[in-house]
Amino acid sequence: MLKKEQSDLLTRTGPGTPAGRLFRSYWLPALLASELSENDCPPVRVKLLSERMVAFRDSQGRLGLIDEFCAHRGVSLWFGRNEQDGLRCPYHGWKYDHTGQCIEVPSEPVESGFCNKIKLKSYPLVERGGVLWTYMGPPEKQPPLPEWEFALVPPEQSFMSKRLQECNWLQALEGGIDSSHVSFLHRGELNTDPLFRGAKANQYNLGDSRPVFEVVESPGGLYIGARRDAENGNYYWRITQWVMPCFTMIPPRGNHPVHGHFWVPIDDENCWSWSFDYHPTRPLSQDELRAMREGKGIHVKYIPGTFRPYANKDNDYLINREAQKAGRTYSGVEGIAMQDASLQESMGPIVDRTKENLVSTDNGIIMARHRLLRAIKALMDKEMQPPGIDLAHQHVRSAAVVLPPDQPFIVAAKEALCVRAGVAHASI
Amino acid sequence: MCARAWLMPRSEMILSESARAASATEAHFRINDANSRPLAIKVIALDRPSENVVKQLAQLQWTCASFLTAVASAPPAGERFSMQGWLSDLAGHTKNLIDEIDTADLVVMVASGTENVQVASLIGEACSLKRVMTTALVLGTASISDAALSQTLAHLRPWALMLVIASAEEYITDMLAALRA
Fold first, then answer.
1. Residue B152 within a domain
2. For chain A, N or C: smaller number of CB within 10 Å?
3. Rounded distance, CA A169 to CA A177, Å?
4. Is A164–B1 a contact, with Cβ atoms under 8 angstroms apart?
C-alpha cells in the first residue's frame, strides 16, 4: 500500500507539482515523427504533463511545440494555417513562429512593434529515431539529447508506435515492471504471437509459472530479474530494465527484436504508452514489420485515424469469454498490450493505492516507488539531478541469459545489460 | 482528453460497462471496508550491521511486524548448535525458530555482507517446511565487493523467494510499510 499523500505525489504531474518537476527534467517522447511528416503540414494537438500545446513543422522544416491557444482571444491554434514560416490563427490572423514568438498582428501597425511583445510558451522539439522529443523544464537545465539505443540504430532496424491508455501513468508503468503477471495474463501469446513464438526461452517460461525474483538498483533505476530453472543446475534469467522515470525494456526472446515502452503522462488520468521494437544488429524483416503494424507483440490495432486502440473500454475491450474459457487467451482480451491496458484501466483513472495488498513479489513496484519518491525529494530539497538523465543510464539493454547458480546477474550479465555497438542483444 | 467525445457519434455515446465502471465517479462507490487482515511479518537480522538497522526499524510503529536477530547466538564456524536456542528478539530473549516461523505469514531476512549469512539456510529450511513465504534483503551493497556479494547471494538464493539488493537502508522501512507491516 501507499499513503494517499505519497500516491498523490507520484501520480500528479501537472505544472508546479513535484512529480511534474521530475518529468520536466527529461526529454520525453511527444509525437511520432510521422505525425508532422512534411513542411507546412497540418498542426497537431499535443497534451503532455497536463499542458495543452500544438505542434507544427514550418516551411523550413523547423519544429515548433507551443501553447495551443492564441494570445489574442484564446482560439485553438489547431485550427491555424501553417504557412510561410509560421502558424497563423484563422480568427484575426495573428501569426506565431516555431518558438511561439508572435511575428504578425495584422490589425496593428508593423512599426508599433506590438507583435514583439507577444510570445506563447514553447518547448524545444527535436527529431531522433522516428520520434519527436520535447524537454519541458527550465532551459538552463536542458539535458543532452536522449541516447536510447532504439533511437540511434538505423531506421530500418526499429519500429515505434504509441497508443492512448486511459489511466494514470504510474499504473501503466507499474504494469511494465511487474514481471510476475506475465506467466498468467500473457501465457496464451508466447507460442502464438509471431513476435514471440519459436524462442527456446518460451519453454522455460511455460515450464515454470512461479519464477523467483531479484530486484537490484541500477544507476538509472532498476534491474528486475526473474529466475527459472534451466538445464544442469543453471538458472534462466529474464532481466527487465526500468530507467527513471518511465522507460522499461522487456527481455528479448530468441532472435526476435527487443522491445520496451515509455509511459508518458498526458494528464493525471491518461498517458501515452509508447512501444518500441528494434534489433541492434539487423534490419527488421518485412514479416516483423507487418506483424507490428497489424498490432501484434506489444503493439495494437487502432480506431482508424487515431491512436486509440480498436479494443477499448467503450467496447469492453472486445472480451471473448469463449476464448478465455478455452485458454486461447487468459483474460479473454486479445493481444498483449490490451491485456495489460484493459486491466490497468479497470483499476480506475488513478487507482486507490491505500487499499492494495502488495506481496513480496511486488518488490519491483515497491522499489520503483521508493526510488521515484527519493528522486523527487532530492530534486525538490537539494536540486539534485535525478537518475536517468545521465546518458550512461540510457545505454542499457534488457537481457535473457542462462547463468551458473552462484553468480549475481548484475556481475555475470554486466555486459549483456549495456549497449554494445555491433553486438546483438543477449537472448535465448 | 475525452476520447469518447471525438471518436463516437452521439447516437453511440451510451457507456459500455467497462467505460462506466472505470470512471472516477464510479470509484466513489467502491466498498470501503477493510479487504485484508494483518499479516504477521517477522524481520530477522542475519549479521551485526543488519541488526543495527533492524533495531532502528523496531523503534517505528508497526501493526504486525516483529523483529528478531540471528546474530547473538550464532555458533562459531564448525560448531553444532541447537535449533531451540539461537534466535532471539532484540531484547536478547531467546526465541524458538520453529515457533516463530509457525506464526509468520512472511519472513524477511536482512543481510549486509557475508558475516553469518549461512544461517539463512536454517531459517529458509524452516520456512520451506512450514510453507512460509521468504524475502531476503541485502543492504549497503555499495561497500561489498562483487565476490562477497556473490557469496552472500549464493547463501540466500536457495531460501529466498524474493531477493532485493538495496543501496539505501530506508528501503526496508518503505518495503514494510508497503506490505502493511
1. yes
2. N
3. 13
4. yes
